[in-house]
Amino acid sequence: MKTNYIKLFSFLLPVAVATSSCNKLLEVTPKYIYTTDQIYANDTMADSVVVGMYGRFAANQNDLSLNTGLSSDELIPGVNSFNPGYSFMYSYNLNPFSAQTNDFWGNLYSIIGVSNAIIEGVGQSKGMTQAGKDEAIGQAKFMRALNYYFLVNLYGDVPLVLTTNYPEERLKPRATAAAVYTQIIQDLENASQLLGSDYPGERVKANKWAALALLSRVYLFTKDWTKAEQASSQVIAQSQLFQLGQFDRADGAEPMDIFTKNNPEQILQLWNSMGASIGVGIKGEFASFGVTEDPTGLLQAFEENDKRKENFVRFEETVNGYQINKYRSDGEAGSANNEYTSVLRLGEQYLNRAEARLELGLPTAVDDINILRRRAGLSDLSNGLTKSQVSAAIVQERRVELCFEWGDRWFTLKRLGLVDNVMKKAKPTTWKTFAQLYPLPTVELQNNRQLTQNPGYNN
């Protein structure tokens, strides 16, 4: 006897429910209620579910990049911010009831749930082509991997939920971070084989190169330097698709085009109707975020004449402080609809490869760093640097190149074992070593007695 579990795709259809084929929930099927067979009846229907999955992920993306910036040494709460949660993030005054960290858990697992439903539903479809099945499953596995990447970096060990079998999955204990990374890599390797190499339209859904780009980063976390080097090299080699954006454009328009929609530096972006990426709420008198300016802060980290400083941060006279300027579109009425949220871009691939090559003992590590430094208007690093000096240079370049992007600074400090030393200097009165991981939501601990809380937090 086959049982289908209820799946609600409110972002796609008014109601979409897969009912039991043995025990009918309703004698008459109401309007807008669909079975699994109907939802995945053909390639077009399945693609609508995939688009909905991306839409749900995009709706929740801003807070992750910005709140992790508060946890690290990138951002401070805006002087006129009315959200006390940002101050709690900045000062590590978190608890299992904190809205920000609870939202991360719920939002990320909700996307994983949709991913699992797509994988199962497409696998059972009788109306889809094999090419359509490969595409949908590849997209679902990519998104499942991406969301687990964030979960394991925010919370450490987390439950590994891989099916829609709710009675079993809801009571799973925390899997080790190593097991989670193994699953992430498996999903991304599968996705890289299932997804196509081109962009049929805009760069708003993953393809083979997006899967490899994320793999190159994940391999750094697992210290698989050879595979990290190979994955990033494959992406960089696709020069017909990817080239670095510019800080100085020949047409004299915007001084920076790196984050414009469908820019060739972009490997994956998130579509949004406003044309605003992270820009909402980060500029002007009532901006919720400010850039750190103390001696150890981000503002002081930029070298003299670094074009990234003038393009990535800006001075706001109304608050007498610096704010994020990396993302130009802010979604306000009349603003240009020319920017999508960047998820993966070519600039990071050079840094991933530089680190992998350094660990493999290859002298070309410095060459990759210098490619980004030249774009920023800086001089090349010397080839005579020691390994520790090159490693420090890579951390520095990641800091200024990838600031405000998906927690890269926060995750890098933790991955390299630098977070304690750096944050003790940046926030000597508030830093707590256990704050490297966020607290699990109390409601999850109450609903699943197999879960345990991260050290340092009381339920």
TrEMBL record:
UniProt KW keywords: Cell outer membrane, Membrane, Signal
RagB/SusD domain ranges (all copies): 314-457
InterPro entries to which the protein is assigned, alphabetical: SusD-like_N, SusD_RagB_dom, TPR-like_helical_dom_sf
Statement: the UniProt record of this protein carries the keyword Ribosomal protein: no
UniProt subcellular location: Cell outer membrane
Any Pfam family the entry gives: SusD_RagB
Key word Membrane present: yes
Chain segments annotated as transmembrane: none
Classification via Gene3D superfamilies: 1.25.40.390
SUPFAM superfamilies given in the database record: TPR-like (SSF48452)
CDD domains: SusD
Occurrences of domain SusD-like N-terminal (ranges): 92-220
PROSITE patterns attached to this UniProt entry: PROKAR_LIPOPROTEIN
Signal peptide: 1-18
Family stated for the protein in its record: Belongs to the SusD family.
Protein name in the entry: RagB/SusD family nutrient uptake outer membrane protein
Source species: Sphingobacterium zeae
